Amino acid sequence: MEKGFVHLHLHSEYSLLDGACRISEIPAAVKRAGQNAVAITDHGVMYGVVDFYKECKKNGVKPIIGCEIYVAPSSRFSKDKLSDSEYSHLILLCKDRTGYENLIKIVSKAYTEGFYAKPRADIELLREHSEGLICLSACLAGYIPRHIVSGDIDGAKEYAKLLKGIYGSDNFYLEMQDHGIREQAIVNAVLCEMSKELDIPLAATNDVHYIDKEDSEIQDILMCIQMNKTLSEKGGFAFETKEFYLKDTESMYSLFSEHPEALENTVQRSAILNLSLTSCFCRRFILRTARAVLSI
């Protein structure tokens, strides 16, 4: 059987000072990697969605619209210095137009109602606007991986069950990543057990922040600018490895040779992510969506 894989976790240049994937270069890189679809999941924003969609369509690559949102530890309205600074990450992908509208509302309200260091959503907001979306448990900064690393396996399981309840058994995935980081090996082992115990499927991703491995230095420079540091000081915040690039399908199967189903699930999910945004770019749709966001 032919191997298949789709990148469902990618940061473009619109993840400001944190992503080095130029939208104009993404489709060609996806084709070189042996793939025919790709997602955009910028941090907390959807600024690049229109350009990304058009560029992919123009080059025969299926565009998948998403976002890596920030989730508040409690309510998005709570902004206490001690208890509300530990936000977590979560990946949301649009299945259809309803999902696209819901993601716009989540991201917009995260800014207008939940902004505290970052634009933060919360569980209430996720429940209210869950239709038409697929959810992945995110990177090491996600709630579930963080609790696994800290030893709170029960807390990770409860959160996984919570998200499964919100999105349904067909729309929530435990996200596995392997960038050669020790904590990821720990997390992946637990995720595999959780997947069996809780009947939640796995999805393997690479946390793509730059297109080619050689671009890791560009990423380091962006992070230094963001943190107001020099390259000689990057040890405390730069990525630990140079593996955050757009990997080809064979490389991903080599990394996850024991879990091919986690790779195949990315293809299966991408097959149902059939959002056509052509009509969404019209003035009527933009005004209707803006009114819906502002009226809430």
CA radius of gyration is: 18 Å
Helix content: 40-55%
Largest sheet: 7 strands, mixed
- Protein structure class: alpha/beta
C-alpha end-to-end distance: 48 Å
Fraction in beta strands: 5-15%
* Helix-strand string: HEHEEHEHEHHEHEHHHH
Total beta strand runs: 7
Number of helices: 11
Given the C-alpha coordinates, what overall shape results? globular
Mean pLDDT: 90
Ranges where pLDDT stays below 50 over 5 or more residues in a row are none
Describe this structure in words.
The chain has 296 residues and is of the alpha/beta class. Helices cover 41% and strands 12% of the residues. The chain contains 11 helices and 7 strands. The protein has helices at 26-32, 49-58, 97-112, 123-128, 143-149, 153-167, 182-198, 216-227, 249-255, 260-272, 283-294; strands spanning 37-40, 62-71, 88-94, 120-121, 133-136, 172-176, 202-204. Strands 1, 2, 3, 4, 5, 6 and 7 form a 7-stranded mixed beta sheet that branches. α5 (143-149) packs antiparallel against α6. It starts with 25 loop residues before the first helix and ends with a helix.
Task: Supply database-style keywords.
296 residues, alpha/beta, 11 helices, 41% helix
Secondary structure elements and pairings:
Layout: H1 26-32, E1 37-40, H2 49-58, E2 62-71, E3 88-94, H3 97-112, E4 120-121, H4 123-128, E5 133-136, H5 143-149, H6 153-167, E6 172-176, H7 182-198, E7 202-204, H8 216-227, H9 249-255, H10 260-272, H11 283-294
Parallel strand pairs: 1-2, 2-4, 5-6, 6-7
Antiparallel strand pairs: 2-3, 3-5
Helix pairs in contact: 5-6
